[in-house]
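Hi R.,

Here's the chain you asked about this morning:
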Amino acid sequence: MLNRITLQELANIRFDEAKFLLDSGRYDGAYYLSGYIIELALKTCIAKRIKEHDFPDKDIVKNSYTHQLSTLFNTALLWDLFEQDLRKNKQLELNWSIVKDWKEDSRYEKHSKQKAEDMFFAVSDANTGVFEWVKQYW
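And here is the predicted structure, written out as tokens:
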């Protein structure tokens, strides 16, 4: 069953896999999984919004089945908070400028070592990584 706990576990597993791929010189997969981590983390936040036994709003359901990070941020009701923190933290803003360009179709693209490293850092940095930011709300 896909639930909040499972989504959290999957995000953490994909984090480890992305790191392993990056360290192994598999830059295409490392880039793709780094973005996918954010998708999973945001879907975890959306799952947290849905109360057990409540019938979810149609738009929440529809917007949850996307790979577009900006839509997921809005559906998780986190965009306004995130935007405030982006204005206060230039490194977080820089990291988001990298992560926001991720798309599901990136799995069909080639990615350089630098691009994969930049993406993984933008996701994973302990102080300003997008994944670290989202995890405080999941």
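One quick note: Residues 27-49 form the longest helix (23 residues).

Cheers,
M.
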